[in-house]
Amino acid sequence: MLTIEEIKKQLKDKYQNSIKNFDSPYSTRLFVDIDKSKVRDISNEIIRMGGRYLVSVGYDNIARDKTLGLIHNFSMDRDDIFVSVRTAAPVDNPEFDSITPDIPNAGWSEREYIDLLGMKFKGHPKPKKLILADDWPAGVYPLRKDVPWNLMPPAAEDVAYELDEAPEGCTTIPVGPFHPTLHEPAHFAVFVDGETIKGCDYRGFMVHRGIEKLCQTQLTYNEIPFVAERICGICGSVHAATYAQCVEFAAGLKISRRAEYIRTIMLEIERIHSHLLWLGIAGHLIGFDTVFMQSWRVREAIMWYSEKLTGNRKTYGMIVAGGVRRDITPELADELRSVINTIDKELMVIYKAVAGDTSIHRRTKGVGCITTEEAKLWSLVGPTARARNVDIDSRRDHPYAAYDEMQFDVPVVDSCDVWGTVVVRILETFEAIKIIRQALDKMPAGPIMTEFDENVTPMRHAISAVEAPRGEAVHYLISGEENRPERWRVRAPTYPNLQGVPAMLLNDQFADLPIIIGSIDPCFSCTDRVVKVDVRSGAMSHLSSGDLEKISRAKKTAGR
Amino acid sequence: MNIDLYGSLLTAMAILLGAAVIVPILSSKRKLAGWVNFILVAVAGVMLLNISYITIFQGGGAETQKIMGIYFLIDGFSAFFIAIISFLAIMSAFYSIQYMEHYPDYKLWSYYLTFPLFIIGMIGIVTVDDLSTGFTIAWQLMTIASYFLIRFEYRTEGNVRNANKYLILMELAWVFIIVATFLINGSAVGDSLHQLIEKMGATSGMTLYIVYGLLLVGFGFKAGMFPFGQLWLPDAHSIAPSPISALLSGVMIKTGVYGIIRTFFWMVPAEGYDGQLWGIVIASFGVVTLFIGTNQALKQVDAKRLHAYHSIGQMGYIILGIGSALVMLNSASVTVKLLSVIAIVGALYHTLNHTVFKGLLFLSTGSVLYATGTKDLNKLGGLMKLMPVTAVVAGIASLSIAGMPAFSGFASKWTIISSNILAGSRIMFLVIFGIIALFISAVTLASYVKFFGMTFASSGVEWTVAKKIKEVPATMLIPKLILAILCLVQGLFPFIYFGLFISIFKNSAGSILQPIFSEIMFDGMVVNNAMGVAVTVPGMQGMVSSVAVPLVVLAVLAAAYVFAWLLRKSGGAEEKEAPTWLCGYQDLNNKNRYVAHNMYSAFKKALRWTGGNIKK
Amino acid sequence: MLAKLCKKAFPRSLWVYHCNSGACNGCDIEILNVLTPYYDIERFGMKLVASPRHADVMLISGAVTRPTLPLVKKAYAAMPEPKLVFGIGSCASGGGSWFDSYHVTGGADKAVPVNYIIPGCPPRPEAIIYGVALALGLVDKKASPIELKQVEFPIDAYMKNKAWEERNVIYQVLNN
Amino acid sequence: MWLTSKIKQVLMVLKPGVVTLKYPFEPHPVAKDFRGQPSWDHHKCVGCGGCAAHCPARTIMIRDVCQDLRIMLYDGSRCTYCGRCADVCPENAITMTEQYELATNDKNDITVNMELFMLTCQRCGRCYNMETTNMIDKMGLKGYRYDSLEARAVIPRATEHLDIKMLEETEHYKRPQK
Amino acid sequence: MDILYIVVNILVFLALAPFFEGVVRRVTARVVQSRQGPPLAQPYWDILKLLGKQNLSPGNLAFKIAPVVALASILSVIMFLPLGYRENALSQYADVITLIYLLTLGGVACLLGAISSKNAYALVGSSREMITMIMVEPVLAMTLILGAVKVKSLAIPASVLSVTGAGYGASVIIMLVVYLMALQAFVGRQPFDIAEAEVEILEGPFIEYSGPNLALFKYYMLLKQMFYAALFVIVFIPAIKTGFYGLDVLIQLGFVLLVYVLIAVLGSTHPRLRIDQAQKIYAVLIVASLVAVGLSVYGI
Question: What is the pTM of this model?
Answer without folding.
Answer: 0.85
